[in-house]
Specification:
The protein has about 190 residues and is an alpha+beta fold. The protein is about 40% helix and about 25% strand. It contains 6 helices and 7 strands, in the order αβααααββββββα.
Length: about 190
């Protein structure tokens, strides 16, 4: 569970640690598990959306002018929704999850997001018999399109997805959260 100083860790992770911050655990998600997590209702909606847009374009093709090309935007949006699990599968190799003594880190490619442990309001674990599973500790947008206009209606739980030994990681995270909460009053 705890990585000793001689353990191998990705350079991208080492550069993201704050001064005095100690790495407790890190892992990469299983590609198939990450894709399965992304597979949901939006995938089926995307299939319908794409098919309807293609149907609309074929009907609009009969009208004079290039008006039918307007439908290509909707085809692209539908394909974006349909390919979400596939993009998650491909992106798993550049995703790193980490737990330090101060925060939970999620690195996706060159983007890193940190969640201070004292601000995490819940920790839930979903795991299978082999120990692989999810440690959920944040609410994220479930919108299949990357836009800021989501009003918060479509939210889902996220965190460390498709990791080995999810139960132990969850317990360690809760232990570290409790340590941070106990230490917080004395730091003020």
């Amino acid at each position: 569970m705890t990585i000793d100083e001689s353990g191998q860790r990705p350079g991208a992770l080492t550069g993201r640690l704050a001064k005095g911050e100690r790495l407790v655990w890190w892992d990469r998600p299983a590609a198939s598990g990450l894709a399965r997590h992304e597979f949901g209702l939006q995938t089926f909606i995307g299939v319908f959306f794409t098919c309807f847009a293609i149907f609309w374009m074929t009907m609009a093709y009969r009208a004079p002018g290039p008006f039918f090309l307007f439908g290509s935007l909707f085809v692209a949006a539908g394909l974006w929704m349909v390919t979400t699990p596939l993009r998650a599968y491909w992106g798993a190799s550049s995703t790193i999850f980490a737990l330090t003594d101060k925060r939970a880190l999620i690195l996706k490619g060159s983007k890193a997001t940190g969640y201070p442990l004292e601000h995490v309001s819940f920790v839930e674990t979903e795991s299978g018999a082999d120990g692989r599973g999810n440690v959920l500790f944040l609410n994220e947008s479930a919108s299949p399109l990357p836009w800021g206009g989501n009003s918060g209606q479509m939210m889902r739980k996220g965190g460390f997805i498709a990791i080995a030994d999810a139960e132990r990681v969850s317990q360690e995270m809760m232990r570290r959260m409790e340590q941070r909460r106990i230490a917080a009053p004395s730091d003020a």
